[in-house]
Write a structure and sequence with these properties.
Helix content: under 10%
Distance between the termini: 40 Å
Strand content: over 45%
Number of strands: 11
Shape: globular
Structural class: mainly beta
Order of helices and strands: EEEEEEEEEEE
Length: 116
């Protein structure tokens, strides 16, 4: 059974930091590109960051460049999103995504709220 389980969300003040984790199981993690998406109320889901299967290449949405860092540990089947200098506009549900040529999987999401 494929599972992507996000954790690490919560309430943080503007300028603060959070680290999201996504634990994967039920598929060969190292064969998949991993990504974080987010969806704010009333908005479409958008790509935040992506990392290739080996971890050798990453890309980010312009809105988070320089503030967020995606990484992965293939030995632990886990992908991370380090979020610094958070802004109220970063408030959203954050989803973990796994993708390769034949499959796409989604987690259920974790809420991140940036507010004073």
């Amino acid at each position: 059974q494929v599972q992507l389980v996000e954790s690490g969300g919560g309430l943080v003040q503007p300028g603060g930091s959070l680290r999201l984790s996504c634990a994967a199981s039920g598929f060969t993690f190292s064969y998949y590109t991993m990504a974080w998406f987010r969806q704010a109320p009333g908005k479409e889901r958008e790509l935040v960051a992506r990392i290739t299967s080996s971890g050798g290449s990453t890309n980010y949405a312009d809105s988070v460049k320089g503030r967020f860092t995606i990484s992965r540990e293939n030995a632990k089947n886990t992908v991370f999103l380090e979020m610094n200098n958070l802004e109220p506009e970063d408030t959203a549900v954050y989803f973990c995504n796994a993708r390769n040529s034949w499959s796409v999987y989604w987690g259920r999401g974790t809420q991140v709220t940036v507010s004073s």
